[in-house]
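Support reply, case 0932

Customer input (verbatim):
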Amino acid sequence: MRLVIQCIADYEDAFRRALGAKRSEEVKKELSAKKRTLQKSENRLAELDRLFKRIYEDMVNGKLSEARFQMLSDDYEQEQADLRAKIEMLENEIQNQEDQAENVDRFIRQAKKYLYLEKLTPTILNDMVNAVYVHAPDKSSGQRVQDVTISYNYIGILPANLLYDVMNGKAA
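Our regenerated output:
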């Protein structure tokens, strides 16, 4: 816990970059492209609804055979199902990308509250940690070694080597 807080205190910008939270122009362009694709998909979905109504009216008025109507109807319904799945996926990706930077900011604000951590209290643990995973002990080396993995609130598990890379200037 102290290592994480120290890393944030001394290398905040590098920590953000290592977690991919600092938005570069490339990330902004990608997000913008996803939003455009989402808008086009939503427009096409609305257009398919109008087309479906039109072919139904054409069938009722005798301008379109029932077989032709069924074929077009099946095609439109399939395209609508595909678009709905694509829209849901894009919305999730956009939301995740927007949330990532906010989550890192929340975690950093939380960690800065405990810059001078001397004692780990239940309050601090609840503020900073989501879960602690204690792995089975390993005795293959002749000594008992037991790994512990910490999942932090907002950002999940931070590999120790990522923190060391940030502190040594090797992180992206």
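We compared this against your earlier run and they match. Two observations from our side: Helices lie at 2-10, 12-18, 25-60, 66-112, 122-128, 160-167. The chain has six helices and three strands. Please reopen the case if you see a mismatch on your end.
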